[in-house]
Amino acid sequence: MQLKSKPKPSMRLSDLKPEPTAHGSGTKYVFRQNGEMPHSSTQVAFGEFRNGEVCEEHVHPTMYEYFYFIEGRGTYIVGDETIDLHAGTFLEIPSGVPHSLHADKSDLLRFVYWGVATG
Fold first, then answer.
1. How buried is residue 110: exposed, middle or buried, by Cβ count under 10 Å (0-12/13-18/19+)?
2. How high is the mean pLDDT of the chain?
3. 49 φ, ψ (degrees, to nearest 5)
4. DSSP alpha helices (H): ranges in 1-119?
5. Mean pLDDT in residue range 26-50
């Protein structure tokens, strides 16, 4: 696989610029994006949602998503399951499953997340 660029092998969160998520809520800091990794990962990022922010229900037809929550509390709805989020929660969302994220239980919800292409 041809890489778009050769990223630094290490970086700090403070080195990254905040940007809006693709879903219009929250903020992300991207460690790696598609084309910077020699495998099927699509992005590796740190996310922050403030109380009241919601990532509306959506589906990724060809990508699994993984989340590890490091601070705060919230709710993730994955398919027909409601998951209570808190520091230490790991979550896998299979491709094709509707999901939505709700920062509704603390001032700030912080997490690391990454996607892996399936097709």
1. middle
2. 89
3. -125, 135
4. none
5. 86
